[in-house]
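Schema walkthrough. Field components (list of strings):
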Amino acid sequence: MKKRFLPLLVTIFVFILAYAICTLQFPKILSWRVVGNLMTDNAFLGVVAVGMTFVIISGGIDLSVGAVIAFTGVFLAVTIQHGLPPELAFILVIGIAAIFGAAMGAMIHYLRTPPFIVTLAGMFLARGSCFLMTTDSVPVDHPLYARLNEVFVQLPQGGRLSLVGLIMLVTVAAGSLLLHQTRFGANVFALGGNRAAAAMMGVPIARTTILIYMLSATLSALAGIVYSLYTSSGYSLAAVGVELDTIAAVVIGGTLLTGGQGFVLGTFIGVLIQGLIQTYITFDGTLSSWWTKIVVGLLLFAFIAFHRLLVVLSARRLQAGSSPQRRTEPAGTRSTGPQSTGARST
Amino acid sequence: MTGRPMTAGFTAGGLPSAWRQSLPQIIALAAVLLADWLIFPDFFQVRLQDGRLFGSIVDVFNRGAPVAILSIGMTLVIATRGIDLSVGAVMAIAGAVAATLINGGHGMAIAVLAALAVGIACGLWNGLLVAVLDIQPIVATLILMVAGRGIAQLITEGQIVTFVDPSLIAVANGSFLGIPMPVVITLAMLAITVLLFRTTALGLFIEAIGINRLSSTYAGVNTRIVLAIAYAWCGLTASVAGIIAAANIKGADANNAGLWLELDAILAVVIGGTSLFGGRFRLLLSFIGAIIIQAMNTGILLSGFKPEFNLIVKAAVIIVILIMQSDAPALLHGRYRRWRDSPAPGRETPERQAGGGAA
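Field assembly_structure (string):
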């Protein structure tokens, strides 16, 4: 039982260590002002990463999230410019995203195709739809945006927890509850652990798969709203590569990319670690921003190697103890479920 | 040779089976080219100028070269039931290495060889993660996809390194017997790869790993080495594409070189009929897939649509292919046959005799 928490503990340890190192070099990093900014600047990433956690725990992947964020931003900017009230636009875009996600989930389940390629098509579709609406960067100057951006919780030392930061914290809390305390969450874990076994246990595979991708797309739209509030504009090339940052955050947060294990809280800390690297680079002033990519890549490698080591060690231990009830999969096979058997006729 | 029964060289249709299996791709290519021709009547017009061929159809092959080259390596990796997401980033690294070296006063040969070596090294890194550390391919190559552009920027020191060396620029702008150099390089890479992987047992080993890695190991295939070779070859093709891309714009752009091309390459392989579940591959059809993608791009440009429209078309193509590759058509067909063959009252079934043979 304790072993399950080891990846999460390591993530938390890395975060505290990194923060301590940063503080030693720049004491000002340990201030409420920086913490408040960390929340605001990474709010959209935090929101979208919660959805991605569900997807990855279920053994899938969602490449469309960045495109959905851009789509949401452009959709909001264009419709608000044409006089639609923002509240209505918010509801509309979340509805569209939910249908979009459900369609991807349905394709993944019913066509038995890898989530990777279906969400790739979704990414092209969402990105292409933004381009069709406009290729310009459209500003949003609705009074509601100005009002919402003035909402914040006062932190000590002049720090501010903005509305978008709050939205992220609420999403993380709600996502945590949904994943760890509900039947749906248990089904997600079951799906990622072993699809065939989950089906035999009576987990509604079709419904769960569709709901997972629906959740991811909906949260991407919410992240898009956050992003739209944060930048007060919509641009079709916005959030390019966010899917990679999101996946990195989830993995650094201790979620196994093979599925079946993970924590929403860990993902949140994974997002904060990436934000911290960027903050460090800003504080330093001489380092270029592309160091972020290299450091994130290194962290990604370290965590993936660490997870792999855990799996290998537990497999060894099981073999040594010769307990027959649990056995890890042979190397190199992905648990893609029943469709993986036999060649396809094309 | 592959998982399919190869005994039947000729089928009921009277065509060799290899041809029959390539038919969807060839028809698709013909349809796209026909559409291009309808949009733009001069599409097939080719003229010789300054000893080099020009024309829209030449352009399709010329511009499609990077994706076509990428798709060669990607085909091998996908056949092992893997995937390589890092090829775009490797392109950026290879372009950066070549541009920096040539500006540093090194010769053309050194610059190109170093770029190719770096590409192979990147591929071997991916291969090491997949084959030795047993990390899922999509995850293993994600690391280099994220970090690769940072590394490329480290090499170019965050700038777009432009160069004027004529021999390096000729890689993209030169020609050989009138054929543009990128097309020549693509065909050469295709020929070398076919020779290396289809005339030896290597291709067979790759397909064996794709079908079942564990049983291949038990059967005596050194799966680690074969996997490493597949990923290294993919890295090599990525670096070749990267050199062409850099030569094309006479500079190395670490941010944008090869951006999202990994997705185009995967799409080309999928259009070419190589299953994402591994186990078999068709190098030539992946090449045709890449040309289909480029012919669509060119067609959209020629028809006056915004180039952004491309993405929607690509999404539609993926969805159609997914539906075709899934069990849905077979199920529908089966249902239709059952309906047709069922002795419904008042309905004659003359098709029964005709529908026997192939299936």
